[in-house]
Design goal:
With 586 residues, this protein is mostly helical. Helix content is 59%, strand content 4%. It is built from 28 helices and five strands. The protein has a five-stranded antiparallel sheet with strand order 3-2-1-4-5, sandwiched between helices.
Length: 586
């Protein structure tokens, strides 16, 4: 089972194609055989028991070294631990096709799975999608609730249509025509896989297929191995398609995937390029991409691949790549062609081995990096030369001067969203007075509320801001608790409110009566963590609340009052909620 074949011609990295380990390969084959038997034999047949035993043994062996095992699903191949299986392997192609028809993007097994649970999952997955009212992927969450250690993930966002192959196409059709249809399929497949978990996306809108939208969806997704497996599988197939195919649709695919790669956050791109730790597959992917993507995207891939390899490419060479990539976008046709070819040729040679660490001092490297990133000069045009705002703020803090330039630099960094870096500079400031003035400028922009309004809240940044703002952070934090639907985020914000202490009490008391039941429960629990309750607070009315969760927290609060203890015990023991009764008994 191999990944897509490497590009032809010179510069190919020596070595065999990446392969799955023997244990993973045997497991996938056992899984395919077991699903096939469940599809043709009735329940209770002796052959089903032996098939389930075989899969259970293989899976139990694999779980000795890992907590979970995720299998990504493409149309004709599987992706497991970052390695794509051979699409021509009959058993694995049949397994991929069966799961794909159910609109599944991935299947995840967790340690602790039992033979009975695995058998039920196999029986469910074995049913042909054509014999069901709805494919399993359209009800993935509901189906997954049947099991404790098996979870299935949908491949598609329900409203986003996948371009199907031409039903009239034949094996004798021209290769370019077949591949052109495949190019469109691969992009739309990647787009809907990326948007699969984005319930807010309007998949009927054409913008859902825009590279920047796809990149944003991948960036914002939680780090789920099964999700990454699917994205990696599509990237492998697209890189192979770009290397091997020509035509109008392939050019369109090249532009879209290149823009998506350029839009991805470097950390996300590095995570995807880890590819299960398979260095050989990673290098072959970069080789394929270097022959088909734009030079800007190739440069981004090289940087991410170097990070994934935990190696450092020569910084001078990276600057040369960056400069050549800029020249590939400007100038006459000849210059652009020469720059484009030079980048791709150098990438092929580079992938043979990585360079040593950068020997240059950090500041010197930063200056050279900025020079390399400047666009080629044009006739009669002036290029502005401004000092970096971070450096201006740093100099102001070191010399103890706060003036218009420092203030402008602080505002520029705020506009760039670099609040965390500003906090680093303030923390390290030798002049406390100027540091306080910089913080005042930062705080004037209400960075805590801005951080809580981000689609993906950076809790490390929020905590740093709260520790500086203290009492002034109470209102933004409570607003965040009230308006967030993310349970985990609300828990983190309540922890910070509890850290602030008793000053939180009056504001919580003001909001408590008009809050929805779930928030009332959270607010009562927060009051219970304070050293003293706010003046005027009475928990007794909440003993009669229609929601059991609220009554439960009210009982906990009132049990702290010796005067009200007996009445609270009676109310708790007569409560219709069993858990409230249990709380009173204890």
């Amino acid at each position: 089972m191999t990944a897509p074949t490497p590009p032809s011609g010179g510069g190919v990295v020596p070595g065999a194609a990446p392969t799955l380990s023997r244990d993973l390969s045997d497991f996938l084959i056992e899984l395919s055989i077991a699903l096939h038997k469940h599809a043709i034999y009735p329940p209770g047949h002796p052959l089903l028991a032996s098939a389930e035993d075989g899969v259970t043994r293989k899976l139990t062996s694999l779980m000795l070294e890992r907590h979970t095992l995720s299998i990504g699903v493409a149309r004709r191949q599987l992706i497991i631990e970052g390695v794509a299986t051979d699409p021509s392997h009959p058993l694995l192609q049949e397994l991929a096709s069966r799961l794909h028809r159910h609109h599944l993007g991935a299947v995840k097994f967790a340690s602790g799975i039992t033979r009975d649970e695995l058998g039920d999952a196999l029986a469910t997955l074995a049913v042909d999608a054509g014999r069901m009212d709805r494919p399993l992927g359209l009800d993935a969450d509901e189906v997954s609730r049947k099991w404790d250690h098996v979870r299935i993930f949908p491949l598609t966002y329900e409203k986003l249509e996948l371009l199907e192959e031409d039903p009239n196409a034949t094996e004798s059709a021209p290769e370019g025509q077949m591949r052109a249809g495949r190019a469109a399929q691969l992009w739309v497949g990647l787009a809907r896989a990326a948007l699969a978990a984005d319930a807010t996306a309007d998949a009927t809108d054409d913008t859902s297929l825009e590279p920047s939208v796809v990149a944003q969806a991948i960036d914002q997704h939680q780090r789920e191995t099964a999700y990454d497996q699917v994205i990696v599988g599509y990237l492998l197939q697209i890189a192979d398609e770009l290397k091997a195919s020509k035509g109008a649709e392939t050019i369109a695919l090249q532009k879209r995937i290149s823009r998506m790669v350029e839009s991805l956050h470097p950390d996300t791109l590095e995570r995807l390029l880890e590819m299960g730790g398979d260095a050989e597959q990673r290098r072959r992917f970069v080789l394929d991409a270097s022959q088909g993507m734009t030079v800007d995207a190739v440069v981004e891939l090289i940087k991410a691949a170097a990070e994934a390899e935990q190696q450092t490419i020569s910084t001078s060479l990276m600057r040369l790549f960056t400069k050549l990539a800029k020249h590939a976008d400007y100038g006459d046709t000849t210059r652009r062609a020469m720059a484009d070819t030079s980048v791709r040729d150098q990438v092929l040679r580079l992938m043979a081995e990585w360079s040593l660490d950068d020997p240059n001092p950090g500041a010197y490297s930063a200056v050279l990096e900025a020079m390399a990133r400047s666009a080629p000069s044009r006739p009669h045009s002036a290029i502005p030369t401004e000092c970096e705002p971070e450096r201006i703020v740093q100099m102001g803090l070191e010399v103890g001067v706060y003036g218009p330039r420092v203030e402008h630099a602080v505002r520029t960094m705020l506009q760039q969203g670099r609040v965390a870096k500003l906090l680093d500079l303030i923390d390290d400031a030798p002049n406390v007075g100027v540091g306080d003035r910089v913080w005042a400028e930062v705080d004037a922009g209400d960075p805590l509320r801005a951080a809580l309004g981000e689609p993906r809240v950076d809790m490390v940044l929020v905590e740093r801001l709260v520790h500086r703002k203290r009492r002034s952070a109470i209102v933004p934090l409570l607003d965040g608790v009230e308006f967030s639907d993310d349970t985990k985020l609300r828990e983190g914000l309540i922890e910070l409110l509890a850290w602030i202490g008793d000053d939180v009490g009056p504001e919580v008391l003001r909001r408590l009566p008009s809050s929805r039941p779930a928030l009332q429960r959270d607010f009562l629990a927060l009051l219970g963590r304070l050293s003293s309750l706010p003046p005027g607070f009475e928990a007794a009315p909440y003993l009669m609340h229609p929601e059991a969760l609220v009554r439960r927290e009210a009982v906990r609060l009132m049990l702290r009052d010796p005067v009200a203890r007996d009445a609270t015990l009676i109310a708790g023991l007569t409560d219709p909620d069993d858990r409230t009764v249990f709380l009173a008994l204890n």
